Amino acid sequence: MHHFQYRDGVLHAEDVSIPSIAEAVGTPFYCYSTATLTRHYRVFTDALEGLDTLVCFSAKANGNLAVLRLLGDLGAGCDVVSGGELKRALAAGIRAEKIVFSGVGKTTEELTLALENGVGQINVESEPELNRLNGIATELGKTAPIALRVNPDVDAATHDKISTGRKEDKFGVAWDDAPRLYATAESMPGIEVRGVAVHIGSQITDLAPFETAFTKVAGLVGDLRETGIDIRTVDLGGGLGVPYKRDNAAPPSPAEYGDVVRRTVGDLGCKILLEPGRVIAANAGVLVTKVIYVKPGETKEFVIVDAAMNDLIRPAMYDAHHDVLPVSEPDAGAPKKKMDIVGPVCETGDRFTRDAIMCALNEEDLIAFSTAGAYGAVMASTYNARPLVPEVMVNGESFAVIRKRPAVEDLWALESLPDWMADDTQG
Ligand SMILES: *Cc1c(COP(=O)(O)O)cnc(C)c1O
What does pTM read for this prediction? Predict the structure, then answer.
């Protein structure tokens, strides 16, 4: 459920009309709903009612400070995958002990940052990382609270690029090697073994891979405890999918997911960490864009909009679908046309929809790509010298710009000419 609905034929975000935001900030822009973010967080935590949990929102899905602060105020911690995200989460006011640091390639600088700030848990993904962390912690006179991220060799049956729990994927330590590495970790002076972590992928629409992975984790916790290693946390990662298409079969609900958590790891006596990203944020955001031209083609129209693949890369990168909502609600009987909605970037992949059958669009019309609140703004680039688009947060009748549109000159503010080039601009 989300709070982007039509009122009197005009798309609104909560109580604010989308055209009024477009008027104020220009297009394109991302727009997030406070009510939807809140609702999704609550639905997710309600599904885990009665369990000892910490929900660490995955900052890589949407790292805007206002989004992190909102979720933090609701009680969320944060899952971060870089030193930058760690600083972001701290800047948003998330307490260090509620931060989990994941990622396959944490540098010495990043691990040091994590230890100096006292993050709650570092999910170690390899033996070299374990050695590195032990060395750093010992030098700093600290002990690093860790889980090993294990690779359960489970195929999450999602898009290849976001499947992370198969043995050929780069993530986690090999399943069979885990007991040996736990024993090693246990013996290290700079390491405090806390838990077991998994994360098998993203946009997972079937509960079976979760059930398999969590069951394996529960087995491992038992095995490790038998060898005297005190496992107090299990971290189940993120990955629950969301509906991108209105008419598609809905993915499992958080309640069904919660049941899987309960029956697989609910009785271990462990604190259960979860790292949802997409399921909280995706349907809480839209990308609003304006039609620049409607270009007739031989077999279909090309609707050229002012947003492009650099602003929302999911269609180009994952063949992802985002439902298109015309901001002025079309009449029920309005004639439909076949069209591609494309951006201005010089790449054929810069296409949001292909062969969509939709009501005709005209120059200056606003449309919204739905389900753009996760892996949207965070993955944007400035390709084609296009400044990042603003992010707006709506709350009831109010809205605020939570990241402003930079000046185009900011794109080259950090660039300089080498001193052997003449000062004057023309050779
Ligand atoms: C990406 C990621 C998540 C979040 O995944 P979603 O599919 O957005 O829920 C959680 N944990 C880790 C380690 C990740 O890399």
Answer: 0.96
